[in-house]
Amino acid sequence: MKNTKNTQIYQVPEEARHDRLDVFLALQMGISRSQVQKLISSNQVKMDGREPKKSGERLTSAKQIEVQIENLEKKASEKKAKAKKLPKLDVVVETDEYIIVNKQSGILVHPTQAGEINTLVNMLLAKYPEIKNVGEAEVRPGIVHRLDREASGLLVVARTQKSFENLKQQFKDRDVDKIYSVLVYGHLPQDHGQIDFEIDRGGDGRMVSRPKIDKMKLRNVSKIQDGKEALTEYWVEKTFKRFTLLKIKIHSGRTHQIRVHMFALGCPVVGDNLYFNKKLQKKSEQELNRLFLHAKHLEFTDLQGVRVSFDKNIPKVLKDYLESLV
């Protein structure tokens, strides 16, 4: 993507030809689909120089999307005046080419259209201003992967453009190992397994997933769900009466992948207010007020060709929650 002072221009890759315009921009800009729709309705978005017919128009033949960002910058400056003091940045490792941080729960990785100031990106820029022009988007300098706001754990941030390209390619090739500690409701069918349900965005904006079916059978035509391939591997670490603690490795990087896959399996993540089953929750249980999802292990290859790995145990609030279940 190439930026000018007042616009952001996104090139449309071949694999996105069947995507909706609003979904594509939401993922590229790191904002919600409703926020993208507001941009489209206010004529701030163009597809190959023309205004789109609707927010859900498919990118069938589109080559690039142009977004006017003057209003975004104005809102960001207004938010800055009201910003609270940023929490302390938890740096695990710092090198000349990358930074490993332990993101706290409740912190956005980068600003959305609303122009939030209390984000990991703003914390990083305050300490490492040189990353400002690293990456592909002004709103997420140095960021090659993300963690949900209410999740915590390890995140690698590129400090140079060369490092960014190296990490981006590894994520694309699925050469980065990411391991999570996750507490879910219920019990898994086996101690070790894989979930390969395809993931797509539903009509309400949430991601959706369900078990694969034989698409060749005529009776399944009405049940076919479009989606992208996704693979989640899990190991049971400890079982409780109503919960299971899992070690999870994701082999793909779909939006909300762990949360959506566990929900589709009937074992939603504890503390998830988006993908949940009320029948599994009890009024008497302790409220967690965050996702029990922590990125505890991260492994990749640096620019010298050396495989490096980092680990971070779950925070105290999650340890205390587990102890309350014993």
Structure description:
By secondary structure, the protein is of the alpha+beta class. The chain has three domains: 2-68, Roll (Structural Genomics Hypothetical 15.5 Kd Protein In mrcA-pckA Intergenic Region, Chain A); 74-173, Pseudouridine synthase; 178-325, Pseudouridine synthase (2-Layer Sandwich), CATH 3.30.2350.10. 21% of the residues lie in helices and 25% in strands. It has seven helices and 15 strands. The chain has helices at residues 21-29, 33-41, 70-82, 120-127, 161-172, 257-264, 316-325, and strands at 2-3, 7-11, 45-47, 64-68, 91-94, 98-103, 152-158, 177-185, 192-195, 199-201, 207-209, 232-239, 243-250, 293-301, 307-311. Strands 5, 6, 7, 8, 9, 12, 13, 14 and 15 form a nine-stranded mixed β-sheet that branches. Strands 1-2-4-3 form a four-stranded antiparallel β-sheet. Helix 1 (21-29) crosses helix 2. The longest helix is centred in the N-terminal third of the chain and has 13 residues, at 70-82.
Topology record:
Layout: E1 2-3, E2 7-11, H1 21-29, H2 33-41, E3 45-47, E4 64-68, H3 70-82, E5 91-94, E6 98-103, H4 120-127, E7 152-158, H5 161-172, E8 177-185, E9 192-195, E10 199-201, E11 207-209, E12 232-239, E13 243-250, H6 257-264, E14 293-301, E15 307-311, H7 316-325
Helix pairs in contact: 1-2
